[in-house]
Each structure stands twice: as C-alpha cells, then as structure tokens.
C-alpha cells in the first residue's frame, strides 16, 4: 500500500478492495525452457574461468539448474541451430551479482566467495568489467534472438550507482541496451519498473524461523504485542524521525550507535537486542533505506510473517506486478511522511492487516526464502513482460 496525504491516497479510504493473493497464473509459462549460457560454470572447464563466484551467485546458479524446466544443453544447441519455435528464459553462468554482505555482514569484498572460485582479482570492479563481454555475447547470440519472446535476465546486486551494470558496461552497452529481450533485475535502483527492469529481493542475512505454531497464529490472526517495530543503527533522517514514536507502548523503537550495533551485524548468531523476538511480536516492521535504497530488513521482516513498511522513495520492489502485488503485502510510505507512520498503520482495519500478514509470509515462502524462489519469481517476471494478455483474469 502506498500513501500520500491527499485525495484517494488517504489511508482511511484505501481498504474496500478485496485482497487478490500473491500472483496470478500465467498462460503459456510452461512453454519456456529455463537455460544458462555456456561461457563459464556451464562450460567445459568451469573452474578454469578467471572469475570469482560469490556464495549468493552459486546458490542462484544451482537453483537455476534445479528448475523443473531447466535444459543444460539448450544454449549450446540453440547457438548452433537457432530455432524460432523454442522460447527460453536465460541466465548468465558468470557472476554479475556483486553483493557484499551475504551470508555474513561486514566483510571485505572478497569475503563470501566460494572457496573453489577464488582468484587474484584485486577488486570487485574488475570482476564486473570482465562480465560485460559475456553480457554482450549473450544479448547478441542467435540462441536468444531466434525467438523474439525469449528473454535474457541479468542480475545486478550492487547498491552503488557507479557499479550498476549499465554504468560498468556503458562503453559497450549499445550492443544490448536497445534490445527489449534483455531484462535487468536490480536489487537497488531509483527508477520505477519498466519493460527492461524488474526488482531483485535483497537476501535475508538473518531470516527469522517461525515454528509451526507461530505460522498457525498468522493464519488465525492472533494478536501481537506491537503495532510497529524498528531497531537498527542511527543513520539518516528517517530513522531519527522514528524516535518520536518511542512514547507509544505499541511502537517498539530501538536505535543504537553503529559501534554498539556492530556486534550483532558481524556475528550471525548474535541477537543481543532481541531483533527476532520483537519482529515476531510486531504486525509491521520498519524497512528504511540505509546506505542504499534496499534494506536486508525487508526480506527478514517478511520471514517473520510481518508486514514491511518501506521508506525508500522510488525503490523498485522485487519482481513485477504480475508476480507480487505489493499493495497486498507491504506498506510504502514516502520519506517525507515518516511522522505519519502510526496514523497510517492504525487506519488499516484488522482484517486487512491479517490478510497482509498472510500475504507477506506467502511471498517469503514462495519467492524470497531461497534462491529457488528467486528463479521462480524472475522467470515469471520475464515471461510476463512479453504480453499482459498472458495473465489470467
């Protein structure tokens, strides 16, 4: 749900619509093969490629290969024998997903890399520079171009603009920039969704494991202690504004200095400030932007069956509207209206809030909990960009 202060966007006028669930069925989705290129890990000598492979990229690659419609030889076959009757959703088998903090926070850029895929590369920028040639090679391949409905999906996990793929590859980008068969999945970008852009969920570094009873409580709309909770480092105007809500018993706000919070960030087993317990006891959880537009909290909040409250103007939420209708699962509040958070959340009727919690947990289970969910969501997002008439009413 998104809000502004006037007109039909007023929160007290937003709740007559029936929740429609997480996604819709796609007609013809089963006609697509899921493939990877054969330039790197899917090639003849995958360990000889002068490339790092981050743990996150490895999880994604392995999940792609485990997809029920994956065809390991399709790319090589189609390059030799382009077939306009075959439709594919393709992913690179080289790493473009330079993400620093998964599965553990706070390391240097070379941390979180698979042991068998380390090399002497001096910086992450050189890894991305190297990937450009493979992006162009795939985007101009007859395997992709043979069928105009085929799609190549690129993963861009960077939070900084200067290492977005479109900027790293800017000198050669013209080779694929105008190709509407190429889609980039961004973890952090300020531009709204378009045909060549979809959202990529941030990985949950500290997911919250719910017991069977806690999951049942979400389905039966059991009461929780807090309307809203947020705890984290003192960073930025939004977080400072949230401090005003400490006066309310139903708003749990715990903002610490970076030094005091660091031990929880760096050690995955630590939960010094009971982050997980408070999240499981909250209907809504704050997900303000940090150094980047995205927040790892966004996914962690979903894992608790809690509704994310996003404060990150123009952040491209994960996947696209054909896969997840985020209006049913999250609340998006403009950064200029943080001080209205409690008013907005109290205006949401109990039955709508309960359905939003169910939706949040369903999205977590289906699309975000693991990389198999990422693949599922990205394939569906890519397929749906071809023709909105594919979506069942």
Main β-sheet, spatial strand arrangement: 1-2-3-4-5
Number of domains: 2
Number of strands: 10
Backbone CA Rg: 21 Å
Query: Main sheet, how many strands, which sense, barrel?
Result: 5 strands, parallel
Short description:
With 393 residues, this protein is an alpha/beta fold. The protein contains 13 helices and ten strands. A five-stranded parallel sheet has the order 1-2-3-4-5, with helices on both faces. It has a five-stranded parallel sheet with strand order 7-6-8-9-10.
Descriptive account of the structure:
By secondary structure, this protein is an alpha/beta fold. It folds into two domains: 7-24 and 205-369, 3-Layer(aba) Sandwich (Rossmann fold); 29-200 and 373-390, no CATH class. 30% of the residues lie in helices and 13% in strands. It contains 13 helices and ten strands. A five-stranded parallel sheet has the order 1-2-3-4-5, with helices on both faces. A five-stranded parallel sheet has the order 7-6-8-9-10. It is globular and about 65 Å long. Mean pLDDT is 85; it is low at 4-20 and 388-393.
Q: What labels would you give this structure?
A:
13 helices; 393 residues; disordered C terminus; five-stranded parallel sheet; 10 strands; 2 domains
């Amino acid at each position: 749900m998104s809000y502004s202060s006037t007109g039909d966007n007023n929160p007290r006028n937003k709740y007559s619509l029936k929740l429609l669930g997480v996604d819709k069925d796609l007609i013809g989705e089963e006609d697509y093969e899921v493939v990877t290129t054969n330039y790197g890990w899917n090639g003849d000598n995958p360990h000889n490629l002068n490339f790092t492979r981050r743990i996150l990229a490895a999880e994604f690659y392995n999940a792609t290969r485990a997809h029920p419609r994956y065809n390991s030889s399709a790319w090589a076959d189609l390059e030799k024998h382009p077939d306009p009757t075959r439709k594919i959703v393709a992913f690179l088998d080289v790493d473009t997903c330079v993400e620093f903090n998964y599965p553990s926070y706070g390391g240097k850029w070379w941390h979180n890399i698979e042991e068998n895929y380390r090399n002497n590369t001096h910086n992450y920028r050189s890894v991305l520079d190297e990937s450009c040639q493979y992006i162009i090679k795939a985007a101009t391949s007859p395997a992709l171009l043979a069928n105009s409905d085929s799609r190549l999906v690129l993963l861009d996990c960077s939070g900084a603009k200067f290492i977005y793929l479109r900027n790293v590859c800017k000198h050669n980008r013209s080779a694929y920039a105008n190709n509407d068969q190429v889609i980039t999945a961004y973890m952090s970008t300020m531009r709204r969704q378009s045909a060549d852009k979809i959202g990529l969920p941030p990985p949950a570094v500290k997911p919250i494991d719910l017991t069977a009873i806690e999951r049942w409580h979400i389905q039966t709309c059991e009461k929780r202690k807090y309307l809203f909770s947020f705890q984290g480092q003192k960073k930025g105007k939004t977080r400072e504004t949230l401090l005003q809500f400490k006066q309310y018993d139903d708003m749990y706000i715990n903002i610490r200095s970076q030094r005091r919070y660091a031990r929880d960030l760096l050690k995955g087993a630590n939960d010094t400030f009971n982050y997980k317990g408070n999240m499981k006891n909250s209907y809504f959880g704050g997900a303000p932007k940090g150094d980047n537009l995205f927040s790892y909290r966004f996914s962690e909040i979903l894992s608790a069956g809690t509704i994310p409250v996003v404060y990150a103007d123009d952040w491209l939420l994960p996947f696209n509207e054909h896969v997840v209708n985020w209006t049913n699962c999250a609340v998006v509040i403009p950064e200029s209206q943080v001080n209205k958070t409690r008013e907005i959340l109290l205006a949401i009727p109990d039955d709508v809030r309960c359905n939003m919690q169910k939706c949040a947990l369903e999205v977590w289970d289906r699309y975000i909990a693991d990389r198999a969910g990422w693949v599922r969501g990205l394939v569906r997002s890519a397929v749906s960009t071809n023709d909105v008439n594919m979506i069942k009413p």
